[in-house]
Amino acid sequence: MSFSNFFIKRPIFATVLAIILTLVGVMSMRVLPVEQYPSVVPPTVSVSAQFPGADAETVAQTVAAPLAEAINGVEDMLYMTSTSADNGTMSLNVAFNIGTDGDINTINVNNRVQGALSQLPEAVQAQGVTVELQSSSILMLVALISPEGDYDRTYMQNYATLNILDELRQVPGVGNAEVLGGGEFAMRIWMDPDKLAQYDLTPTEVAAAIRAQNTEVPAGSLAATPQSDPRAFSYTITAGGRLSDVDDFREIFLRTNPDGSSLLLQDVARIELGASFYGVDARLNGAAMSPIIINQQPGANALETAAAVKATMGELEGRFPPGLEQVVPYDTTLFIDASVNTVTKVFIEAFLIVGVILFIFLQNWRFTVIAMSVVPVSVLATFAGFYLFGFSINLLTLFALVLSIGIVVDDAILVVENVERVLSEDEEITVTQATIRAMKEVGGPVIATSLIMAAVFVPVAFLGGFTGQIYQQFALTVAISVAFSALMALTFTPALSAIFIKHKPVSGNETTFRRAINTPLRLFDRLFAAITAAYMWVVKVLVRFWGLALLLTALVIGGSWWLYQATPSTLVPETDQGIVLASVQLPDSASLARTQDYMSELSSRVEEIPGVSYVAAVAGYDILSSAVNTARGVMFINMAPWGERELTAQGLVGQVMQLGAQVPGGSAMAFNMPPIMGLSTTGGFTGYLQSFEGATPQELFQASMKVMQAANQNPALQRVFTTFNVNVPGYRAEIDQQKALSYGVALQDLNATLSNTFGNGFVNYFSYQNRNFQVYLQNEDEFRRTPDDLADVFVRGGNGQRIPLSEFVTLERQAKPAVVSRFGVYLGAQFQGGPAPGYSSGQAVAAMEEIVQETLGSGWGMGWTGTAYQETQMGSTANLALVFGLLMVFLILAAQYESWSLPLAVLTATPFAFLGGIGGIVLRGLDTSVYVEIGMLVVVGLAAKNAILIVEFAELQRKEQGKSIREAAITAARLRFRPIVMTSLAFIFGTLPLALATGASDTSSHHIGTTVAVGMASVAVLGSFFVPSFYAMIAVVSDWLRRKMLGGGSEPRRVAGADQP
């Protein structure tokens, strides 16, 4: 091959090329981002609003519904969900197509929101509607704690807001930093109704006085233009201004008298610098905690960013007041770092194992070193490809690099083995001449096999959505590494071969050391010769009896398909990430104090479990419905590093649920962390039951109960539950508007009075430490405990008299929802659950949809989010990727052989790849997943690559030596059996560390490692038997068809012996 001849004659040039590629790869690797997964989570834009004092239904109807209708259908939208809670908050999330620009999505959503603002209540407009790009990539959680209780949570929350957040947001790689749970400073005006009555005041009048005296007044200026008489100076006028501290608010005038006396706000209310929200309490191992969520910037290096955040917090800690400390209770980079270390260990093990396998077969250290030298060059050069394509270093690309060790060495083995064979057949030939001759023979197969491997993977690079992102980086990593290995096999390997390979020494000249090494190798050769003889006997039988080969292959195809259909599947397998989530539930309407007590007891018991490091407990937040709820809580249970504990995350899940049942007053549901953050909360499916005919919340609840009951009786489902409940105890204010108007009471004042006394009555803003915070008006705690307290709250009538609210308002007990959700523009009951053992997540989703249709009819349906949505959209994408890959292989082979029939002989090896791949998964009791499907692609490419070696040499035997089809097939099988077994064993043993890995991300490595290892073993053992038979059969049929088409008018190629059994 003339291209290789250039490098054989110029070995320094070849060496320089290899060194340059290695250096470029190393430099690229240093600047690549490191993360757990590539960007596979749909970009999400969050819209949030507050309606102080409103219940969940009111917020859903007056805030969520108008916004959802306005936003629905925005460009590139996948789905939209909203949650309205009893504390007046509304959160709406819009998920967009993967790969779209998050900033553009935010602008598009904001434009829709602006058009809907006029439809929202004035109280909501006054506080504003926030639209922001939501980052699902939570990097870590930093927490401020006060071990000795010197500071309360409000102080720590605001210390973080004022002194830490801005510093963290400037750290390179940090996308955002936010204090979890709100609770920032607010000026709290706690009114005493008795004193208001004593001074003949109403809450509305108090609010009006605060607004009038806590405001910015644009008073103008003196001597401003235009001027009739020019002045030398111009002066601005300031008047009033926002108040800034508690004393200022205490001095607000409510009334002044002619005698100079006055009534101040402090005379009727207690004023304090408190918190804007008291509904959530966070603790770490029992101590008060203020958590700060750190989001990673897209494309940033997770490990470097986390290190920079920790360094910044270390510097800031030096400024903390005494008694305030910082800890990191949740850090995703620990898992990423551990996963990278695990894969790195596997990489080294695979490299060493492949080297040993090669030495056993090649039996020459020079051959082994030359073949293995391709691995570091190809693997490191692949990082340059990462940089060009915008890839990151993540689990997928690392797995691909591990598998590449056994793949990239194939081409070098092919070259070295063929050089050795040429030297052994001709003792007079020089090494250079032998290398040139060997390259002439294998140059074509090297290019062909590399094109085949690339052809299998390149089509998946054009897949879109979640599947495309998952496949793309893995597939192109393998394709890039194979391309570099082919380049090295055509340049660097022959150059080294021509320099370092020598003729085998005469056996009599062996040293004692060499004899000690060669003796077991000769025993291996004898064993392998016996194996080869048995192999050739089977090949001859199958070449003779085509019908038997066809029958057995048909059985393999049928068995593989049956196994694939019977094996449960999942999108991404769960893995032990070192953290467990627990959702705590108390009876509906339970107070926050009661939830705190339950969680405190449960946390203390969980802390005692060996292998648990931290327990971060947040009372008042329901992670399942993503809403504030005083009767709910969430616990983040951090485990010790993987090497320091025997307890697994799944084992901890069971223990936490048992402890939750033992602590009286509540329960706990524990979950392993989802494999991909942002796609799921609990690791199972999440969907919304919705009525397309406008069902009421009560009708939706009744329907959801029927569906939940049927779902938990279905064998394909387990732990199916809904967070929707309309039976939460509460009160409804019934207002007699006619009577109020007859007394001259303004309904607006009446509504405002209710909000200002029993709710968080928002007044306006005040200035504190160069920031603006909210002012809230509310009755003292003892005056808002029972319905009877209505009699102590007054409004002003038309004649100036104060009239108690109880005259117009009655509180009636009712059952109502604490949280109202929407999916799209419809009300939705959120469901969560998972597949039962032996069933796939796809089957679970299908079972839920079938249950809804059978139970409720066509007017109802399920809307899916996260993992379940991706599975419903995924459909047959994986199958299409495989079909396109095989089609590309066929077309490239057809172009190479100038034949439409011979490529079929190469593709006949693929059924055995499927049998081994799915068989290995079944034997280990694993589910099929994206990793398994990726592994299938790898094995299919390798199966075709092995088959090409036989078909290519068989064609050479026919064309250059004139052998019959049968003779050519048998000879090719004999000549290529050893290199096929060598490369196959190198790949199989090189992937065993992946299949048997322990530690972080071991579950994922088991899926892909088992698929490729067992799949390749099946190809090596079974495929090698059948490819010669199918080659002979297809070649004979092809020649027969050619003769028939030519009508016997031309001399066909010699096929003597093909018709002789």
Structure notes:
Keywords: Cell inner membrane, Cell membrane, Membrane, Transmembrane, Transmembrane helix, Transport. Residues 364-499 form the SSD domain. InterPro entries: AcrB_DN_DC_subdom (IPR027463), Acrflvin-R (IPR001036), MdtF-like (IPR004764), SSD (IPR000731). The chain has 1061 residues and is α+β, with helices and mostly antiparallel strands. Among the domains are: 1-31 and 363-503, Up-down Bundle (Multidrug efflux transporter AcrB transmembrane fold); 42-97 and 111-135, Alpha-Beta Plaits, CATH 3.30.70.1430; 522-574 and 876-1061, Up-down Bundle (Multidrug efflux transporter AcrB transmembrane fold); 578-672, Multidrug efflux transporter AcrB pore domain (Alpha-Beta Plaits), CATH 3.30.70.1430; 677-726 and 818-874, 2-Layer Sandwich (Alpha-Beta Plaits), CATH 3.30.70. The chain is 53% helix and 20% strand. Strands 1, 2, 3, 4, 20, 21, 28, 29 and 30 form a nine-stranded antiparallel β-sheet that branches. Strands 5, 6, 13, 14, 15, 16, 17, 18 and 19 form a nine-stranded antiparallel β-sheet that branches. Strands 12-7-24-23 form a four-stranded mixed β-sheet. Strand 23 and strand 24 (771-779) form a beta hairpin. It is elongated and about 130 Å long. The chain starts with a helix and ends in a 15-residue tail after the last helix.
